[in-house]
């Protein structure tokens, strides 16, 4: 475990040594970012809309006290979405989607000697392949999280209106009340940290694959489980540090 | 010319290479021959620098490589082309982009110069009209051709091939072997080919190094190899019935010649 962590740190360090030309890395980053964005947007949209809807319905189910105004439901959906659901749930979904994709792709390149082919050409394969993936994730995750915020709050709005638990006016006044801009910044910081963890851990798992197709599958699984754990631990640490 | 000196390599206490030395000549197809698992691929990777040997050194045309400064190693690497066992084409790129890739990364050529070179290399390996196919859409033999084109695209001085004809039908295997030999002679480069295929030995064995359990047991050419007293080598060569039969026919012919010669001598006496 500890040895693995050490190797992970060395891997991160190797990305920065002897890098390729910035222009090449930049172009690769843009390509990767488009890929991550397009491949993930639908799943993020679906998950966040439903999470918002479910949150709204469940809060209104629990909030039976007549003294508490109904607009509180909107307020709580907003707070939960901004602080926790949008950044963390989105990242966990992306750990599954992007993490397994990165590990599987790199693992396959490793066992089919495509990584060796790069090395023979004198290219630092780690930096050429992995650095753009990490930078792309760090760029794209916050965008996806912002999208998730809107859709989740929108999902709550629709669910509340359809179920008749809360009127659109109450919901809107709820989501506009007591707004703390720092929470958005906090969510974006979280998404950047999660993006780095997921993409680097998955790259590490993919990059150290050795053997055959079976090992590639294992690497994907490990990438996802380790990323999810790392995200949750980091979530806790960041909440302690920054809130 | 590539020289290797006393290469040792172990993996976790398991000795894979046990002091291999030798010289690989320019303009010739140098074969590394041996059974599966004897360390041929490991030796090849030690030479190109994908694996660091525990002990030993590699010299490219007199320039020390193994533990030299990074920029000198990079300089040499840029002159190395390599064809991998599974071709190792980049599967996110089409044929043309695969061959263009080293030019893009290693040279300052303009786009049109690169495309000229790509088309030249592809036609050199006999692959016209496949530019926009993806690696998953082409046959094993075509992949090897693309692999060779990618290896020679940046004008390599050293060409390494790991089992270039494994997994191919015998006819395609021979055309790939011949292609490598032609290219080696045409551009006067130093080529090292890992193989366990007797067809390659006979067809293109200019210089052969026989590896057995991590040691070099024998070296010579494809004529000398038929006539040695090294048991391990003979077991390897004549494992195949066709080779045994060919050897028998050859021996009988030689005996017959000797007999005729004797008789002739007897008559003249
Ligand atoms: N990276 C590695 N780690 C551990 N063992 C290895 C590694 N590469 C090769 N080996 C071992 O070295 C031996 C020789 O392998 P190799 O050179 O691939 O044989 P071949 O002559 O068939 O090409 C094998 O027993 C293999 O298990
Ligand atoms: Mg091999």
From TrEMBL, chain A:
Superkingdom assignment = Bacteria
GO (cellular component) term, any one:
ATP-binding cassette (ABC) transporter complex
Which parts of the chain span the membrane according to its record?
Answer: 33-61, 134-162, 182-204
**Transmembrane as a keyword?**
yes
Q: What name goes with this protein?
A: ABC transporter permease
The Gene Ontology terms for molecular function here are: phospholipid transporter activity
What PANTHER family does this protein's entry cite? ABC TRANSPORTER PERMEASE PROTEIN-RELATED, PROTEIN TRIGALACTOSYLDIACYLGLYCEROL 1, CHLOROPLASTIC
Record's keyword terms, sorted: Membrane, Transmembrane, Transmembrane helix
Question: Any keyword Membrane?
Answer: yes
TrEMBL record, chain B:
Keywords, A to Z, come to:
ATP-binding, Nucleotide-binding, Transport
Keyword check for Nucleotide-binding = yes
Question: Where is the segment annotated Disordered?
Answer: 247-269
Q: Which InterPro entries match?
A: AAA+_ATPase, ABC_transporter-like_ATP-bd, ABC_transporter-like_CS, P-loop_NTPase
Q: Which residues form the signal peptide?
A: none
Residues forming the ABC transporter domain are 2-238
PROSITE patterns found in the cross-reference section: ABC_TRANSPORTER_1 (PS00211), ABC_TRANSPORTER_2 (PS50893)
Do you know which Gene3D superfamilies this protein is assigned to? P-loop containing nucleotide triphosphate hydrolases
Name this polypeptide is given = ATP-binding cassette domain-containing protein
Q: Which PANTHER family match?
A: INTERMEMBRANE PHOSPHOLIPID TRANSPORT SYSTEM ATP-BINDING PROTEIN MLAF, PROTEIN TRIGALACTOSYLDIACYLGLYCEROL 3, CHLOROPLASTIC
Tree of life domain: Bacteria
One Gene Ontology term of the molecular function aspect = ATP hydrolysis activity
């Amino acid at each position: 475990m500890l040895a693995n962590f050490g190797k992970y740190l060395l891997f991160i360090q190797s990305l920065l040594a002897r890098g390729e030309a910035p222009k090449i890395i930049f172009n690769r980053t843009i390509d990767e970012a488009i890929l991550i964005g397009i491949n993930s947007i639908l799943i993020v949209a679906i998950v966040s809309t439903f999470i918002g809807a479910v949150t709204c319905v469940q809060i209104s189910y629990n909030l039976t006290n007549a003294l508490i105004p109904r607009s509180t439901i909107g307020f709580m959906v907003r707070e939960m979405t901004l602080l926790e659901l949008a950044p963390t749930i989105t990242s966990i979904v992306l750990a599954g989607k992007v993490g397994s994709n990165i590990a599987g792709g790199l693992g396959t390149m490793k066992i089919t000697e495509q990584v060796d082919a790069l090395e023979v050409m004198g290219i630092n394969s780690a930096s050429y392949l992995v650095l753009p993936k990490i930078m792309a994730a760090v760029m794209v995750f916050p965008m996806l999280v912002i999208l998730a915020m809107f859709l989740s709050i929108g999902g709550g709005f629709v669910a509340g209106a359809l179920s008749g638990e809360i009127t659109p006016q109450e919901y809107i006044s709820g989501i506009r009340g007591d707004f703390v801009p720092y929470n958005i910044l906090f969510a974006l910081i979280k998404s950047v940290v999660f993006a780095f963890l997921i993409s680097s851990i998955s790259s590490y798992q993919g990059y150290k694959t050795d053997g055959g197709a079976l090992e590639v599958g294992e690497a994907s699984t490990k990438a996802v489980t380790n990323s999810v754990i790392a995200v949750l631990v980091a979530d806790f640490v960041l909440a302690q540090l920054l809130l | 010319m590539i020289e290797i000196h006393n290469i040792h390599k172990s993996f976790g206490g398991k000795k894979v290479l046990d002091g291999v030395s030798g010289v690989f000549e320019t303009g010739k197809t140098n074969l590394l021959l041996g059974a599966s698992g004897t360390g041929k691929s490991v030796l090849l990777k030690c030479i190109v620098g994908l694996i660091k040997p525990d002990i030993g050194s590699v010299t490219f045309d007199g320039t020390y490589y193994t533990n030299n400064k990074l920029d000198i190693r990079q300089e040499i690497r840029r002159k190395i082309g390599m064809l991998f066992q599974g071709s190792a084409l980049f599967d996110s790129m089409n044929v043309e982009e695969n061959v263009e890739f080293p030019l893009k990364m290693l040279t300052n050529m303009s786009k049109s110069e690169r495309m000229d070179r790509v088309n030249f290399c592809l036609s050199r390996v006999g692959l016209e009209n496949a530019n926009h196919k993806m690696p998953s859409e082409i046959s094993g033999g075509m992949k090897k051709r693309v692999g060779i084109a990618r290896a020679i695209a940046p004008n390599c001085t050293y060409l390494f091939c790991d089992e270039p004809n494994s997994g191919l039908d015998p006819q395609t295997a021979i055309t790939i072997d011949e292609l490598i030999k032609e290219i080696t002679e045409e551009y006067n480069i130093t080529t090292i080919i890992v193989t366990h295929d007797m067809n390659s030995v006979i067809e293109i064995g200019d210089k052969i190094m026989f590896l057995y359990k991590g040691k070099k047991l024998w070296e010579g050419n494809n004529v000398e190899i038929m006539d040695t007293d090294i048991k391990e080598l003979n077991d390897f060569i004549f494992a195949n019935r066709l080779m045994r039969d060919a050897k028998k026919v050859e021996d009988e012919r030689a005996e017959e010649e000797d007999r005729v010669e004797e008789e002739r001598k007897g008559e003249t006496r």
